[in-house]
Amino acid sequence: MKPRRFDYFCAIDWSGATGPRQKGIAVALCAIDGGAPALVQRDTAWSREEVLGILRDDLPADTLVGMDLGISLPWADCGAFFPGWVDSPDNAKELWALIDHICTDDPNLEASSFVDHPELSHFFRRHGGREGDRFHTPDAPDKRGRLRVTERAQQAMGCKPYSNFNLVGAAQVGKSSLTGMRMLHKLNGALPVWPIDPLPGTGSVIVEIYTGLAAIAAGRSASRSKIRDCGELNAALAALDSPSTASHGPIDDHSSDAILTAAWLRKVAENRDLWSPKGLSSEIAATEGWTFGAF
């Protein structure tokens, strides 16, 4: 990468919840030339479609966008997303298209039809004790389910990732990942999504983020990654060489995750090693993708 590849840094805490607007979505932005990351404020909660619109039409030039969601599902452990199913997609972009196609009638970029599909439901853990008979594999016998290669790299860094096939519990990321993949498909190539797309020499780029990695880089442990006080947030920002926010008192963890991760992206974006993690092959890039910052 050339020096100063990006001029702006945007972190988006995503949500897979049902409904037209998502209290769990937060968007924070900062610039290369300094200043604390600031939330992009709205009069009402975000909708997923509004985030899609910003990514497609309203980003500052040369923005590195980090989205807190899984950009694909496990593939390498079984050589397929849905082993044994004849229609299993061959790569991440085909997976995105399949999710969007099956969920055509689901409103608000939701993905309920996908996880309730008569064939695909076998692979998911859903609410009400409905665990599919293919949720576990010999390589994923524990409660977290199947993991991507990048999630195993996160695990080695002290994080506790769960499978994107898991839709149950506070630690689940499956719902946000599936709705996020619908959104990425609807972007229709307007922005490259690294590493599924190669990193271009100019322009804005989307990467997958795991906000716990930003918290660890700021000196917090994985178990203390959530911040709900502005004083603690400012201390974490200082650890990333970022100015403090002007806010005081309580803050919701969606907002603090976005603010802290935007500062982290600004600090580490020019680290060449993070763009070439040792576990990332061309096959993994095309199928599973990667989490920026995992190595």
Q: What overall geometry do the principal axes of the alpha carbons give?
A: globular
Output the strand order for the largest sheet: 3-2-1-4-8-7
Total of helices: 9
Helix content: 25-40%
Give the low-pLDDT segments.
none
CATH topology of the domain at 8-71 and 185-275: Nucleotidyltransferase, domain 5
Q: Please indicate the percent range of residues in DSSP E strands (runs of 2 or more).
A: 5-15%
Q: Describe the main β-sheet briefly.
A: 6 strands, mixed
Q: How does the helix and strand content classify structurally?
A: alpha/beta
Q: Could you please describe the fold and organization of this structure?
A:
The protein is built from 9 helices and 8 strands. The chain is α/β, with parallel strands linked by helices and 295 residues long. The protein has a domain at 8-71 and 185-275: Nucleotidyltransferase, domain 5 (2-Layer Sandwich), CATH 3.30.420. The strands form 2 sheets. Strands 3-2-1-4-8-7 form a 6-stranded mixed sheet. A two-stranded antiparallel sheet has the order 5-6. Strand 5 (125-126) and strand 6 (130-131) form a beta hairpin. Helix 1 runs parallel beside helix 5, helix 2 (92-102) crosses helix 5 (174-187) and helix 7 (230-239) runs parallel beside helix 8 (253-268). It is globular, with a radius of gyration of 18 Å. The two termini are 18 Å apart. The model has no long low-confidence stretch (mean pLDDT 94).
